[in-house]
Design brief:
Two copies of one chain form a homodimer. Chain A has 354 residues and is of the alpha/beta class. Chain A contains ten helices and 15 strands. A seven-stranded mixed β-sheet of chain A has the order 1-2-10-15-14-11-12, with helices on both faces. In chain A, helix 1 (60-78) crosses helix 2 (99-108). At the A-B interface, helix 2, strand 6, helix 3 and helix 9 of A face helix 2, strand 6, helix 3 and helix 9 of B.
Chain lengths: 354, 354
Amino acid sequence: MPAVMLPPAKKKIGRQTVEFHNPPVVAGTATTVGTLEGQGPLAPYFDRILTNDLYGEKTAEKAESRLLLETAQAAVEAAGIALSDIDVLLAGDLINQIVAANFAARELGRPFFGLYGACSTAAEGLLVGSMLIDGGFAQRVLACTSSHYHTAERQYRLPIEMNAQRKPTAQTTVTGSGAVVLANAGSGIRLTHGTIGRVVDLGVKDPSQMGAAMAPAASDTIACHLQDLGRRPGDYDLIVTGDLGSVGRDLALMRLGELGYDCSHNLNDCGVMVYGPEQNTKAGGSGCGCSAVVTYGYIFKQMAAGRWRRVLLVGTGALLNTLTYQQGETIPGIGHAVVFEAEGKEGEGDAVRR
Amino acid sequence: MPAVMLPPAKKKIGRQTVEFHNPPVVAGTATTVGTLEGQGPLAPYFDRILTNDLYGEKTAEKAESRLLLETAQAAVEAAGIALSDIDVLLAGDLINQIVAANFAARELGRPFFGLYGACSTAAEGLLVGSMLIDGGFAQRVLACTSSHYHTAERQYRLPIEMNAQRKPTAQTTVTGSGAVVLANAGSGIRLTHGTIGRVVDLGVKDPSQMGAAMAPAASDTIACHLQDLGRRPGDYDLIVTGDLGSVGRDLALMRLGELGYDCSHNLNDCGVMVYGPEQNTKAGGSGCGCSAVVTYGYIFKQMAAGRWRRVLLVGTGALLNTLTYQQGETIPGIGHAVVFEAEGKEGEGDAVRR
């Protein structure tokens, strides 16, 4: 049926996966988290922990934008470069019209693309950024996201002052920002492949059930990724979703099992990892910042230390707004996957030791 | 200061411009507009004109999503291909969390990246899409945007039923959607270069002055583009901003004059072009759909007819939300530029005839 026979897309594999011929390298990262996240099990891995989530600002929105800005600046510093060395800035967040990112981009002054993928935005930025670098359009890309408990709660749910009771399946928006500098050469963790998610909707209508809403998209992307590359779950030392929470993670595992992929030994979720069970965060963390701080803060450090050699990050987003579910719409989800590989020989990670 | 000497980004020219080595081709387009736009001077150029802006839906949000969906499907049909031939879908709109795009993406079922650049989203999609194609990641990309008078007015300003008086500098949100299929080969209009905008803010605080808020960003991008490529305004048959409206266009012309670029002979604005003076739309049109329908509907047809050979589209966005200006923030703007070239010999367009 195609009107014209086109040459193949050289870096596309299978249905939704792309391969980087010159895999982008992680040149620097930075993470900042809020007070609650700073009391969690991953606290030692974060670069900065706020002592006050309002961060000296008058409003939570201004605080979140500053969080993103300063984390971006810290990632540039960690990469040992100047801000002017950044060719393209990619950023997004959960506030209406991604204003936390927009106002930070104003201060950063670099060529800027705004992204929106809800909590999958960190993975979307990694994927788009890698394509810009591997495509020859940029030497260095700075990709950042943020979320803030106060901005998200009051925008999506109820005034924080109301202290409303939450359902056990609800997730807690992480206050935090993660930023990464990707470069077209150097040593360190490399991004070798990505799988671009499609929107999947199994009909969940309850916004307290975000994990359930996103689990089908996460499973769809993971299954497609494995199929496209002819890999098995065990080819990864870690498959990490971000952020399904405990309810969504269990549903994703079940769905992947139905699809013939047993990920029970090596799948975890950033929303589950970021808080301890004693922190009363219901089903775990969520928000654009969650998978960013867990990945750049914890996972990359574990990879650098040799614990994991090959990791699949699957950023997941719930694509609703406050009007849509009031208008009777369901909550569609999306998941974007990125493969990270640490330097070192094939077979040094957990995957092959098992 | 760079930590590592990196190989050059082969397709980057100057500060913010990229060059496509294998320029993506426009393989198909579709445009749909609302009733008011269908009474304007460009009506003969649009593919479909709604007879009822609610489009048979219960809410304006559902109507806008359907508008985007059906326009996207029409562009695929115009390209003579199947939906499954689309490798990546890029889409965005103005509704909180870009839900018009998200819900359309659910129906389209293709690998999807959500973008947010306010009214610059069409240009952002063209730029990112071209990079994915020229980078070897996709054969065909479908890029779409939409806006709807009803969804935008009630979200950003006042209930439509209030029929509030508007300032003469205010713009009217276009009800419309434009979609384009880009391909990695074929004949037709080609995208040869792009200039990625940076956020510029000269301190405008009045949301009825969007044109004034965006004009500095438009001028900044145009000046940078011309400088990066060593071109003069006269090298383009048309430089078209989208959407500054009449106030913003005049300010951009003035600012470009100060920067040494006289664009008074060949600069126009999609927001000015889309409505007639008798339509009482104040300073003209705006919204993600405006530059998309004017470009894909009118400009591309003029290029195909041989009137213009080389056109520079500068999509402009105002990066605010309803909270930011209430919190005392100014309104930053951004502009992304894309170069279109029609087939035919150098020197066939207006630019050289003048």
